[in-house]
Amino acid sequence: MGKMPLAKVDDRGRVQLPSNLRHRMKLKEGDEFVAEDLGEDTIVLKKINLRLLLEDAIEKAKSIDLDKLENEIEEESNQLARQKFKVSSR
What is the DSSP letter of 44? Predict the structure, then answer.
C-alpha cells in the first residue's frame, strides 16, 4: 500500500486536498461536494454537480401533468376523508 498523503484543516475549517488527488480527479476551484459523517472519525466527500441536479429536476418537473396530479390528490384526500368519517363511496 502506497504512502497516503495528508490533508490538514486550517483555522477556517477548510481542508486542502493533496494536489495529486485534485489533478487525478480533475477538481477545480468551485467544485461542490456533499460531506457525510460516517462516525468513527470517518468523513466521506462526494463530488456533486449542483447545476446538473437542478437542470434534471426542472426537466422532470416540466413533464408533470398538473391536472392529473391535482385529480389524484383530490381522489386520495376524498378516500382518506371517507375512511376517517366512515362514509361509504358512491
Answer: E
Which pLDDT band, with edges at 50, 70 and 90, does 13 fall under? very high
**Structural contact between residues 15 and 8, judged by C-beta atoms closer than 8 angstroms:** yes
The pTM assigned to this predicted structure is: 0.49
C-alpha angle 3/7/40, rounded to 5°? Answer: 90
Q: Is 27 exposed, middle or buried (0-12, 13-18, 19+ CB in 10 A)?
A: middle
**Per-residue pLDDT, 2:** 64
Q: What is the CATH number of domain 1-48?
A: 2.10.260.10
Domain borders along the chain are: 1-48
